[in-house]
Amino acid sequence: MTAFASLPATSGAYSQGPAVPKTIKVSQLNHYFGEGELRKQALHQNNLEVKRGEIVIMTGPSGSGKTTLLTLIGTLRTVQEGSLKVLGNELNGASRDEIVALRREMGFIFQAHNLFESLTAFQNVNMAAELADMERGLAKERIDYLLNRLGLGHRIHYKPKSLSGGQKQRVAIARGLVHSPKLVLADEPTAALDEHSGREVVTLFQELARDEGCTIIMVTHDNRILDVADRIVNMVDGYIRSDVAVHETSVICEFLRQFPLFSDLSTSTLTDIADKMMVQEAVAGDVIIRQGDPGELFYLIRSGQVDVIIDEDGAANKVAELGEGQYFGEAALLRDEPRNATIVARSKAVFYTLGKADFKDVLSRSKTFVDELRSVLASRT
Amino acid sequence: MFNFNNTPLAWKNLTHDWRRLIVAVAGIGFAVLLMFTQVGFQNALFDSQVKMIDDLQGDVFLVSRAKYTLAAEKRFPLELVNQARSASGVIGAYPLYTELTFSRLKSFGMGAPSKAFPIRSIGFRLDDPIFNSDRINSQLQKLRLPYAALLDVRSKRDNFPFPTESDEELAKVQAELADRKIVMVGTFDLGTDFAHDGNLAMSAENFAEYFPQRKQFGDPLSVVDLGLIHVGDKSQLMNIRDTIDQLLDDRVFVLTREQFRNQEIEFWDKSTPIGIIFTAGKIIGFIVGMVICYQVIYSDIADHMPEFATLKAMGYTTTYFLRLIVTEGVLLSFVGFIPGLIASTLLYALLADSTGLLLRMTPQAILMVLVLTVTMCIASGLLAVRKLLAADPANLF
Lengths: 381, 397
Fold this sequence. Notes:
By secondary structure, chain A is an alpha+beta fold. Chain A contains eleven helices and 19 strands. Chain A folds into two domains: 232 residues, 3-Layer(aba) Sandwich (Rossmann fold); 118 residues, Jelly Rolls, CATH 2.60.120.10. In chain A, a hairpin with a 2-residue loop joins strand 5 and strand 6.
């Protein structure tokens, strides 16, 4: 049996199996600003994995380090301590040429549009296409497509001076996307946009992520676009406080809701539970729990199948088979008894586990206020 | 170096703000004008030092070895001219006499200064082909008279206030050369230089009358200042020069027109402060241009720091930025050079008209100033590019 006690279930690392390529892998990353006595640590022990095609939204108060992390990922700052792999390249100690080559595979969208006033919208976008050595015809087609998609079809040959703030921002977005980057780093891309064009931009992001496998990392405070996130990373004071795969968390919540004791819990409580669950992996034949052992964990099957075997008077009887979305191990925790059955993995399987203390803590909360009130009133008589 | 398929960012940035472009063009044009003025004056002054050589006929010249410049009164015996005539390939050799030390002209006309001023007297045998100028050659008959001389119309006005507009008026003016009566029977056009404020041309016979002191004992015409030699076959010029050189003794240099001219210019350029003064003038023009050009490129960079930083983030390399700025420098130098050249040509015409200096726009001068301008703009671009390379894309987020 292989345990990954350090990997949270909501990280989503196992939702599609570990084989999905990682665009970004941050491990034990520290970053400091200043020198000598003024030296201040901006990032503490950051760990983060982002898969290909994921849309990640980074949130957190200003000064929390999210921008620092973004510039480090974007090769715009030099990695000081720890490891940072972007598109398969280790950035710690990377050469100038490697960094330039890597930058050309990325798209940057800054909060300020930074367009050349002397160039038209088309020419500004074309600066990025030329760098990628795109064939002229193809580049023109793609620029036209992007600017049209972003609602600037009629302003393609206008200079920034005759564009509104939002239009300029959309030109800058097109410039960040024109060369089909593998990774897009965006800082408040929708801040200057109205709701409709903001929606258009994030829809475009989703299409790129889905169709071109483009990974997108956004720093945003715009709550209107949180729904496009595959993963939400929250940073506080240089620490990654939570790193949650949105889809995986909703899958876990759905699974948990099927457990009768949890069925009346609110979504936010379920999300809290999901956050506390850890990943555990097993191969066929592994014994997950053994009859008679003390019970420590509650198990949710994420993938694979298990056999439930009860040992009665020396004879092992298989009493059930459990599959994806089902759970086991709750009885021992509820009654503080030893395990009443043995569970053996039938195939390669992934479980999400919840510790005994957390499990009991949740149960104590599952009694709703009304239930408690009723029992109080009932006992008065 | 210049990829015409790509977005011409250098050109676009340069021409985007037309106010700034006009300032840049005016500034660089001014620097170009400064440099052209220096080059023009230098060439004009050097040209005027050798104007007499240019006005003389002859393919090879005999010059005393001691005569380091035309104004140095170092002479050699007439026999050497006669000897040169016997060299093969030579079809004629003629003496030319000049005098400055004893040659003082005083006018007794109305409002004339009471002082006699030095003027160069040029004496020649009237039958010899000495001058190119038709203006002189058509008045040779008048010069046969005693006391007759031609006055250079470009002689310094303050010293020689003669009515050169009319020959009749001029002939009536009472004047003395070396304390003897002189009659100005006509005019010619030679020009002044650093050493000479004016010129008189006269027959060798009259010349001998005015300046008998040239040679203490004997014929004043037996010592000559220049020997003018005509050769038959111009293509054999160098061979004939060598032949004459071998024939004559070491008292004279035998020089082709080109060599003579260069020797004279070299004297003024290298042995007097004139060359240094004009070089300093050119350097000042260069520096003025560089400061202006630096200012233009620097402010273009400073105004576009976030944009350039964005380009850096996108993966544009240092090489790209260097090219961009060099291109901008070259473009600036051309857009500044053309109006500068036009303005200089106009100024040349204006100054030539008012000063009588020979200001000519030669291809060499144009090329030299163009090279200086391009160098100046590229150099200032490379000074300014450090600012661009310091653009930090990490500050953009």
